[in-house]
Amino acid sequence: MPGNVRPVTDERDGLLAYLAHQRDLMRVAAYGLTDEQARLTPTVSSLSVGGLVKHVAFVEHNWMDIVQQRPGGQSMEAYAENFRLGDDETLASVLARYDEVAKETESVIASIPDLNTPVPKPGDVPWFPQEVTAWSVRWVLLHLIQETSRHAGHADIIRESVDGATAIPLMAGLEGWPETAWVTPWRPPVAPG
Known about the structure:
Layout: H1 11-30, H2 35-39, H3 49-67, H4 76-81, H5 91-110, E1 118-120, E2 134-136, H6 137-163, H7 167-175
Antiparallel strand pairs: 1-2
Helix pairs in contact: 1-3, 1-5, 1-6, 3-5, 3-6
């Protein structure tokens, strides 16, 4: 994954490419963490890298339910729980789930001929404007980019608090970039022994 989005061919391709890039940045923040590290909440917030990956996958899937008008939805308990990497979950499992959700999103969006297609607004979410009855598929994609970007930033801060690793060296390590004057790729610490 390069540090910037590839050239895009049209609006739909651009929206999906930017969403994919933000998903990749979530993966960068998780790169090389153990399950225990992925559960850590080293800042004043209750957020962890693993919990954030789980949350963005949950939110993206929920929006595809809404776009397709599938039954589902979320309870407040489920919403709160999706911010936490459970003891029975692994970082690998939530990353795999995120991959499944990404594939589903791309399939759903490819099946919709017009990005102006209305998406009915769920009525029971207090932070949705009351005067809005529907958004467009375009709006949903922009919202997912916004949501994922916000949480990728959170994940960056949490990751740096866990072990000092930052985005560009992590990306370089994940991608196998050569060391340069610009960047030294992150490598997992060597266990003493």
